[in-house]
# Entry
Amino acid sequence: MELQRPGRQGEISDAVMLSNGNILFAHQFGVTEITPDKKVVWNYEPPAGHEVHTAVPIGTDRVLYIQNGDPALLRVVNIATGATERKSPSRPNSLQARTASSGMRVLTSRGTLLVAHMDLNKVVEYDSNGNELWSFPGMVFGESLPSRMEMS
# Structure
């Protein structure tokens, strides 16, 4: 499928096919949901100086995304109503930089979020308020795994 995106163009950082066949994707300068016939269902563009590199569907009517920048924000938006249902500013040094999130994320069954941070070289689990629960150091190419297994 070739994508014609609304607004500013940028790299596609994250994409998932929803149960209804629509595609939800983060594309650096926003988050968009499109139908199989390429109609835009929902679109969000962050303010200048901010980017979006990860988006997670919550069911078929909500989207969780991280808006990188200063301040960085984690938002849950009801795309049916347009209402922001949760907005959590990041903690200092957590989601601030453009490279903070590599786009790799997991929404856990407990409602927490795992984020791979490129700038911090670690994986962090956050609660629903954006508080860090734990972290795990990242890997450096060529380094052996056992020396990096300490949890912080």
